[in-house]
Amino acid sequence: MITVKQTLIHPLWLRLTHWLNALAMLIMVTSGWRIYNASPLFNFSFINELTLGGWLGGALQWHFAGMWLFGINGLCYLLINLFSGRFKRQFWPLSPRQFVVDLWAALCGKLSHTDLRHYNMVQRVAYVVAIVVSVLMVLSGLVLWKSVQFPLLRTLLGGYDAARYVHFFAMTALVGFVVIHLVMVALVPRTLLAMLRGR
Question: Going along 73-166, which residue ranges are E strands?
């Protein structure tokens, strides 16, 4: 009997950081919505049943707990990607022309997903944008958390009030990324299996 060894798609460290990040984002977004409801930026609020914390103080505690998980896990993800060379292999180079081609193929339902080890240009751009937005969310979050301790960062972001808007729109972009990500997983379910078992 011949056994076929499956190729590793996602190493263990990547799967761990992926799922820890998913947990951290769930905590931060739902607690962040409760914090937002206490002092809305726009003429709407989030449904309380979708928020975490129960009240402002509880939401802040959850948010700070999620912040440490998100920040430390994200830093580990970035460092391992950079020092292992994975970042360059998976996300580089970026090609605007190929992005348009792959995006059109995706919209037409013709984008190939035969080899999950390699990202198409839409995936590359989406992940790079998500990383940049995550960094922006962390930096703006630092200003909101410790504004006095980070005066230069506060100034670069346009002040405390502007940092709130930056933080909100960064969160919105990440939530949008997650929604699209989940839709793609539903369309190509073996990507979920690969992220669970690595193969």
Answer: none
